[in-house]
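Bench notes, bay 3.
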Amino acid sequence: MLRSILVLVIFLFGCGPSQEEIDIAIGSAIDNIPETITPVIILDSDHRIVVGDSEFSVELAGWQPQANVSITILSAYGSGEDYKVGQIRVNLSGAGSGMLGSESVPAVPENILAGIYTIRALSESDGIEAFTVLTVHEEPLEIVTKPMAPVILIDSTRKVVGDLELGFELAGWAPEDRVTISILSAYGPNKDHIMGGIDTNLSGAAVEILGSESFPAIPILPSGIYTIKAVSTKDGSEASTALRLYAEHLEVIEKPKAPGIQIDSTRKVIGDSELWVGLSGWSPNDTVKVTILAAYGTEIDYTIGSIDINLSGAGGKILGSDSYAAIPGNMEPGIYTLKAVSTKDGSEASMALRIYAEPLEVIEKPTEPDFNKIWRDTTPAIFYVQDEATGGYGTGWLYKNRYIVTANHVVNNATQMKIFQTSGLPFVASVVWQDASRDIAILKFNSSEANLTSEVTPLVMGNINTGHYASPLMALGYSDRGTLSNQSAGRAAANVGVLSQVKVFSHGQSSSIKHIIMDAPIAPGDSGGPVVDRDGLVIGMTRSYSTNPGTFFAIHEEVIKESLVVFFGD
């Protein structure tokens, strides 16, 4: 455990540091061992746990990576008689979660008493423990539904004596009820006016208009405030609302609309040949002249043109042309008054016109890379590779037809590797090139034996340099050893990050070569996998990582190309 933490640079698979290098690393880094994180266990706080519950959720954090942690209710049946709920395996981060229990083996047995218990989480790797409180209730909370009181609403229009119709909305009534609507004491004490009946639907609601010419909704009554009452013919339930009656309708007086002028929202620049002007609220069939006031100084105006108004009092037109610019080129930038004047009655309208010296420079914002699409497009050409003799594994990718590129330390001393696809059956590829100085290997396979699908296309090499620092990238690989379902590996995992640095250094058996330093997290099994840019082009190949948090290494695309040229000669 200590050795795996303190080794500064670890191969993902294959050739790692020598024993001497490990001992030196331990000696120099012993004072920098991080403090141990206290393990914790957390129960699902949203779930009321009851005697006999078949399952409940548990979350773990701060445990030894990949530890098996057993979950137990202490003294569930009395002193010392514990009940083991289940087990959770934490991940490389020391965290994990799971839903424990089942119908056949419930998380909370039916034969324990309601009360407060201690839940213990115990690591089977190092015996570390964590505890939390479990409250077991006798039964679930009873949810009591409060019955909804029936309501009646009327439309919001002004109600006038003699109105033929009146709109109603009902809610909260018995389903398929018949509700009678009345104006109480419409003709004197206890002399009601029955307006009609409304049928509710299965939801106990209805929307309907009552009244007609032969039977007005509101008869000739004195103006004032009345009670409208709704009564169920099914169960006698009632609801009421107020009805205010006026003697007459309001007189609508139309206010004359002042004429207006507007222009389009584009940035106006000296020398613009055209300007769109819109007019409204003018006299029908008018002609309106449009002018820039004091365009060349005090009282020296510039008339752009005229616009004809239609029968609705509106008009719109693009004024100006190449020979007669809407905004002359010899004006000064600034704010001017744009004035419109009727040639029929002299009415006017004005607005501000801001004129700039030059247009805005349009800078296109780079779009975010669609790494999900890139992942879908590239993963068919990425393979899980395995040395059946040693069990060693890693990742490889299709460079061209029949040729797979991977890291040399993945291949190690093997002469052939078993290749697992995202879908389809595995096949065997021969090791035809090993470039230990650059940590690159090339595998060759028989196309007829591989039987690749049409979606498997070779990946394309890209370019990257120091000018691409902070650019997004994605590392693809099988750190999870692949799903290996029905002899297929499934799609490679995707880890997204940015380019941190480009640096030359030696490592393991390789010479001093150029590396990509990135923060895209990688782990054992990712070795040999491609690192792609925002366009899905290969800019590196995953190699190793450091115990310095967030530091991960990939072989630079230039180094890959150098090795490929030596082998293929192109």
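Next record in the batch:
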Amino acid sequence: MNDAKYSSLGVTQGNCTEMLSLGRHSYSSIFDYYFQYYYEHPMFESSIKKGLFPIYRGHHLGKDDILRRDIIQTLRTNFFIDIQYIQRQYEIDFFKYFESELSELTEFINDKLVLISKNKVEITDSGIPFTLQMCRKFDKYLIKKG
């Protein structure tokens, strides 16, 4: 497996999965938390002068968030998911847990852009340009139009 890890901040080599960012409008990913810093310079600067992190808002990730982050990051980095690993790691039945999401991939499956077996979800070479669209099916925070 590739040592690179994808995050919304880009691709990072090795085990560098925790990211403390600096600067206005940046955000950090530390363990089970995401933090976003102030956009506005005066608020950012005021926090710094007080000796505080200039955090505008944050989010604690639940078990489902962490699972979905793992699915999305793995697909975007390696273009496949080892279903058996996910089932062991998160103690889920992958096909039941993601029944709705997998049904939303039907068009991609029919076009042979992604292959799904009992052991693996694999994005084909032809499907790589559509990886983001496939990953979006696993993102519960996106507004789903249906």
